[in-house]
Amino acid sequence: MKRLGILLSGRGSNFEAIARNVRDGRVPAEIAVVISNRPEALGLARAKEMNLQTRCIPSKGKEREAFDREVVAVLKEFRVDLVCLTGFMRILSPAFVREFPRRILNVHPALLPAFPGENAQRQALEYGVKFSGCTVHLVDEGVDTGPIVCQAVVPVEDNDTEQTLAARILKEEHRIYSEAICLLLEDKLQFDGRRVLRK
């Protein structure tokens, strides 16, 4: 059974969606450990309620590389096969990324490469796009620049706010994140430069 390591900083709704799919047998894996850099993270509390292994590794006041070494050590301790970032509000160091080549997934609430970084929904509304969505991508050493595994399109309505658009995008995030995990774990992907193709 493949082992997932979940990294989160907040409420962890994508983590909960993955956990439900693992429980129901729709994701062929087990959650080995849930790690948060914030002790108050709601996702960490939910993981404890689910009787999952959890670790809190506070990031405040630590050098990025030093913090990342601590996280990598825990992921290796739990023999993690795939690292899933679910609202983890940290940029990973190159050294972290090199420890798990093509084995770190992240979800972003926009159709990358459009609107990377923070406040993606606000960026989409301000730009006036008619469609937005979400992207699950492999993590590389840039910010939201890794190869794209899955995307889902969400129409932007004329009366949308950041909150209403974010809520509709989040539903799609919950769906395609587990899809991307399955594709990776079941070795159904092949790589052609930046392009991620289904076998």
Any chance you could write out the topology, listing elements then pairs?
Elements: E1 2-8, H1 13-23, E2 29-36, H2 42-49, E3 54-56, H3 64-77, E4 82-85, H4 94-99, E5 104-108, H5 120-127, E6 131-138, E7 148-155, H6 162-185, E8 189-192, E9 195-198
Parallel strand pairs: 1-2, 1-4, 2-3, 4-5
Antiparallel strand pairs: 5-6, 6-7, 8-9
Helix pairs in contact: 1-6
Backbone CA Rg:
16 Å
Shape: globular
Question: SSE order, as H and E?
Answer: EHEHEHEHEHEEHEE
CATH topology of the largest domain: the name is Rossmann fold
**Relative strand content:** 25-35%
Q: How many strand elements?
A: 9
Tell me the major beta sheet: 7 strands, mixed
Mean residue pLDDT:
97
What portion of residues is helical? Answer: 25-40%
Number of helical regions: 6
Considering the chains and any ligands shown, give keywords for the structure.
globular, Rossmann fold, 9 strands, seven-stranded mixed beta sheet, single chain, two-stranded antiparallel ribbon, 36% helix, alpha/beta, 199 residues
Walkthrough of the structure:
- The chain has helices spanning 13-23, 42-49, 64-77, 94-99, 120-127, 162-185, and strands spanning 2-8, 29-36, 54-56, 82-85, 104-108, 131-138, 148-155, 189-192, 195-198.
- It folds into two domains: 1-100, Rossmann fold (3-Layer(aba) Sandwich); 106-199, 3-Layer(aba) Sandwich (Rossmann fold).
- The chain has a seven-stranded mixed sheet, sandwiched between helices. It has a two-stranded antiparallel ribbon with strand order 8-9.
- It has six helices and nine strands; from the N terminus they run βαβαβαβαβαββαββ.
- β4, α4 (94-99) and β5 (104-108) form a beta-alpha-beta unit.
- With 199 residues, it is of the alpha/beta class.
